[in-house]
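[audit] Reproducing an earlier prediction to check determinism. Same input, same settings, fresh worker. If the tokens differ from the archived copy the diff job will pick it up downstream; this log only records the rerun itself.
[audit] input (142 residues):
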Amino acid sequence: MSSGAAAASRGGRTPPGLVAAAGLVALAAVLPVAYLTLRALSADESARALAPLSTTIELAWDTAILAFGVVVATLVIGVPLAWLVVRTDLPGRRLWGLAASLPLVIPSFVAALALLGAFAPSGLVEEVLEPVGVECLPEVAG
């Protein structure tokens, strides 16, 4: 039974405890943004001079483009992969399903540290490529 059908069978009411819990989660999600907004609006003139409006707008635009790109890339990779794992007889389906869920399990900072360790000077990738003549990789930090 879907959640809509379950709510209809109970008379269309959502339990008050669930509404309160959802409200607390929404408040917790909005609180940091509200705090930063209030701090930015109450900043004195010298603090505002450090970050002109044009810089702020440019940073917000870059963030929006990044978020859009991540959503598009996730849809392009995730939807076909999910369809292949669930709807086909793909060899190694369970392994593919597990590998596809790893980004949800591994925190991003752990993955970032692993990538930095692998691509750092004298890192794993450089050691593997050294026998083929690659002596130095471009720097990935920054």
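[audit] rerun output stored. Observation attached for the diff report: Helices lie at 3-9, 16-41, 45-50, 53-87, 93-105, 108-119, 124-129.
[audit] end
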